[in-house]
Design goal:
The chain is α+β, with helices and mostly antiparallel strands and about 250 residues long. The protein is built from ten helices and eight strands.
């Protein structure tokens, strides 16, 4: 079975070939086997997690008939497919019902447990790091629901994909900020910064925008915005990705 795995075959196929063809004492785990074991032992460990898979693998190897592994594996797989079915299993006619934990506890329909996969959303954020000659910076507080609520960040433009400086200048929100004003803009990092959250993958670009002091007074700011010095900004709570940027930028 180890030679089969080395050739790039998955664990299920390797174990099946090893036990069915070469009669090696290796347990085979498929959906049917997971279901039979989960119900029989009453286990609520999710079958699609590393810890859950390890637990079921250990039990499958433990109960395996070492003298007839191929027959044993085929039997439990067939039992799960025909008797211990995912929906409406015939528990009344099941020969294992008296010792089946799930049947005794009325949990047949709840087992096995499988965690739902979290859909990870991709977002493209462009932070506008306005900086005056006196090293003053413009920050804003996140007050809406979502990631990083009540933390401080730079003004941000969210786009559908990564953009260039020329594409940035074409954004409607940017036109409201930069149109008719003098500034110099450049991207701080040569590559897009990837920041992974549990439910989101953020692709971030930091655009450093050199301006004169009067620029801030002309911007349409509200009470969530503040102009702070490069020294003061270190005292504000910011997301980790902003903190890393500041450490390099300052």
């Amino acid at each position: 079975s180890e030679l089969i795995k080395l050739k790039g075959v998955g664990d299920y196929t390797a174990s099946a070939v090893a036990s069915f063809c070469f009669d090696e004492p290796v347990a085979v785990l498929d959906g049917n086997v997971f279901r039979v074991l989960a119900r029989y032992y009453g286990w609520e460990a999710p079958i699609n997690t590393p810890a859950g898979k390890k637990l079921f693998k250990q039990k499958a190897d433990e109960v395996l008939d070492k003298d007839r592994p191929g027959l044993h594996n085929q039997a439990i797989m067939e039992f799960g497919a025909l008797q211990c079915k995912p929906r409406s299993p015939d528990c009344q006619a099941c020969p294992l019902r008296d010792s089946c934990t799930a049947f005794q506890l009325g949990k047949v329909a709840q087992l096995p447990v499988k965690l739902k996969k979290v859909k990870v959303k991709k977002r493209h954020l462009n932070y506008l790091v306005f900086q005056s000659g006196e090293k003053n910076l413009l920050i804003q507080k996140r007050v809406k629901k979502g990631i990083w609520k009540n933390l401080f960040e730079f003004p941000v433009l969210e786009t559908a994909q990564n953009i260039t400086v020329s594409q940035l200048k074409e954004q409607s929100d940017w036109l409201q900020l930069g149109e008719g004003r003098e500034y110099a803009i450049q991207r701080f990092y040569p590559k897009v910064v990837k920041h992974q959250l549990s439910h989101q993958t953020l692709f971030i670009q930091f655009w450093v925008i050199a301006i004169d002091q009067g620029f801030f007074s002309e911007l349409p700011l509200d009470t969530t915005h503040q102009v702070v010095s490069s020294k003061e900004i270190k005292t504000f709570p910011v997301p980790v990705v902003i903190q890393y940027f500041l450490e390099e930028f300052l």
